Amino acid sequence: MKAAAFLLTVAVGLALIPFGLAFELVISILTVHWIPNLPKYARGVGVALSQLLNVTCARFLTDLCVQRNGLPFGDPDHTTSAVLGWNQAHNTVTPVGGLLISWLDILESEHCLKAYRAQWTTSRPSNS
Questions:
Q1: pTM for the full model?
Q2: Which of the listed residues 43, 94, 108, 122 has the most CB atoms within 10 Å of its CB?
Q3: Which residues form the domain of 86?
């Protein structure tokens, strides 16, 4: 019963995302507050999606992008970019991970390294 309730909650939550995005965009445009608020909103959505991707695709991304001695994906407190940046800084990125980093660098120069530095400063994070 708890598993079914959990799955239903996840399904409803995922189904609501497009409606929430559309609602926010329409309200922002109608109230003419969208110009100053849109970058902050877009960044928040981007971070949330990155954290969701980090958790939901953890095993896939780890196998595809990280060498055996690298930091695995899966910590919900970190973004996909930050985990890639940690592995980039510690030379534990696979060739596929390197391609993903290069793609993200198109959005912002050294995007993954900046995300890594913003979330961690001196020590290896735990993945508990």
A1: 0.77
A2: 94
A3: 38-119
